[in-house]
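Q: What structure does this chain adopt?
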Amino acid sequence: MSGIDHLGILVEDIDKSVDFYKVALAPLGIECVMDFSHEGQRHAGFGDDGKPYFWLSGGGRVPGNHVCFSAGSRAEVDAFYAAAMQAGAKDNGAPGLRPHYHANYYGAFVLDPDGQNIEAVYHGPD
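A:
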């Protein structure tokens, strides 16, 4: 099977980012499944079923990243957005249809503590 196995982004404040993503991704069923330090750098892996596929690594910042997480419903997209905003995100596009992508594209966009563009999307009908 081919495809992306995992993705990692650098963050400035790993503690703040781990706390943010624990809250923001919980409505999508994504949790921190690994958290360790190696050679003085902390890494935290988020995923489900014990498999991390979204990694945060402390000690740097590369602005302009975009990560999109799949949601199981429009309600999950709404819950992601609300949780992320509660955790300190900045709005980058409230939940709603984005018909310029396709007729059923329902997404929400936030900026994380480092200004990374984070999205949740549901592709199904209402």
